[in-house]
Specification:
Layout: H1 2-24, E1 38-42, E2 45-49, H2 51-69
Antiparallel strand pairs: 1-2
Length: 71
């Protein structure tokens, strides 16, 4: 049973973090508009792929999670 409690706490923490990111995310002006993000606009077709933003967020999450789960 203690393992189930820990799992529920972790799931709750993830939900809180995602909720905060979704509510605060639009207020960060440079997030999603970094140099290197691919944006193609041709007529009615709009394609946007935030590759540099994804790489930076991935590196930050990797560092944060390594700090929490390092033993």
């Amino acid at each position: 049973m203690p393992d189930l409690g820990k799992a529920l706490i972790m799931v709750g923490a993830v939900i809180v973090v995602v909720g905060l990111a979704l509510s605060v995310g639009p207020r960060i002006p440079f997030l999603g508009r970094l140099p290197g993000d691919i944006a193609v606009n041709r007529g009615n077709v709009h394609f946007y792929f935030p590759i540099v933003t994804s790489l930076i967020l991935s590196a930050l999450l990797t560092l944060i999670l390594n700090l929490f789960f390092r033993r």
